[in-house]
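Intended use. Records like the one below are meant for learning the mapping from a protein sequence to its folded structure. Do not use them to infer anything beyond what is encoded.
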Amino acid sequence: MERAKSATGTEVPPNTTTDATTALRGDPRFDALVTMAADLAGRFDTARLLERILGHAMALLGCADGSICTVDEASRTYRKEVDVGVGCLQGQTFPLDEGVTGEVVRARRSVVFDEYSEVRGGHISGSDRAQLHAVVGVPIMADGAIIGTCVVFSRDPVRRFSETDVALVELFATYAAIAIANARLHALAAEKESQAAILAERERVVRDVHDTVGRGLATVLLHLDEAERTIGRAGEPTAALARARTAARSALTETQRTVLGAGPTLQDAASLADAIGLELAWMETAASIQTRLIVIGEPVALPSETGRQLFRIVQESLTNVLEHAAARSVRVGLVYGGSTMTVLVEDDGHGFDVAAATAPPRRALGLQGLLARAQHLGGTLQIESTPQWGTRIRAEVPRQPSVEATRGRWRVLVVHEHELVRAGLVRLLGDHETDIQVVGEFADAARAVEAYELLRPNVVLAPMEHPRIDGVAITSYLRAIDPEAAVVLLVPSFADERVRGAAQVGATGFVEEQTDAASLTRAVVAAARGDALLSPEVFSRLTAPDDPLLTPREREVRELVAQGLPDKQIATALRISVKTVEKHVGSILRKTGAANRTALAGLTAHRD
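Structure written out for the chain above:
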């Protein structure tokens, strides 16, 4: 970091955030950092956020005066969003060549003055001006541009701001950048709200930004908690604070990327047909397949969730045609009925055996995903196919979403030691399944296990191969915390012997590292729904005679169910409650894919 020269000609040397942390060890004011992160994680009123950020920064520096300004370099002006103490010019706008903010923008870096009188064009005058002495101003950055400044004043005539002080203010400026970026996004969304054709887009953007910022700040909180515990043990918190700052910057980057990557809405009547038309055009270009779109009935606006899920049904169906059908032509129909909406996808490919592909437990993940989407909307899905004669998929759903469709999204926690891989998994899950919300991402598996209690995700996605704690251990630790924890593991190969061990301790699903995005998201959603959907290769390995997929207690319950005993007698025989028996039976049905107790007994007899 470069520094401005003071009036005495003394140049303040460069520094980083980690230099500041040494001075914080044992300082009770460090609690302000944790409190500030909690404020950011739970409050999204911009003015209050900026006021609290500034308040924390001033408290740590032992000062009572300061301001946070937003900068508009295009119009050459800046606005005082928060102004505390002497002057109180909050809400006023000034030329960008005046005041401490002007000095920061000119220098493109943090600046320090021994006396406020050295500041060109300072706005505080009279007796108030005489009360101010040392000044520190730092830029609030976003994507390489200055979007604001954070300024702190001292009334102590002998006080001089040190490099540690500057580093602390820069840390708080990073959090201010997140708040300002979030505020600007909300302003953009408010403007879009006035345009009826893109009302749903505004809702999606706000939700995605909330998720991105919330995920990043949850990570910041955990790092700050670690630093606080380290200080309590008289340790060195430098590394934890550095990770907190990195996480904050990552959250800012993700927020900006979310804004720039906002996609089109599917709410209005024309957009669903247009979106499907684009998919068909891509299909013709990619595979030279003849396509046709037919719209029957009077198109009407659909709820955003209905439109999104219907589009995904068509999109996945077309992907299946392209990958498996070897078709020459495909037709898509949209039928607008009185109270229902129907989509049809027909191809002239080689077809397949529907009964074999949909029968549990070897049900195809792709077909199960289509069925789950239709059921999510309270509708039905029919698949008709004859080998060598093509396939017809028909989904019929009510125009208004069901109660299931209005539930919250699936919360996923991602674990991987490599940052690049984690970022790819987070983006992949978000891009391919809007019902997935990544609530946390960790390189350290032990930290992920610790964070499980705080974040309570529906699914944990982790690699089988991980330093110190592999996928088997991760699963074991999580299931000890929560017996219902759903864990999906990325495995190098289904032949890996650790797959069996992970299944024994309760892993819900397995996905090969070379798999495609669609298969991964299907497996995650299946796990979130409580389904143990496995590929045929994995299923054949895990349903060997000793059934490692089941816990020892579940195998005992399975054998008694196979004998035809009712739950009460099973409870008496095993000396457990009837409710516990019911819970085990439900788990066994999910893991084996059996539709009911009779089917489970049949599977058991066949195996024996």
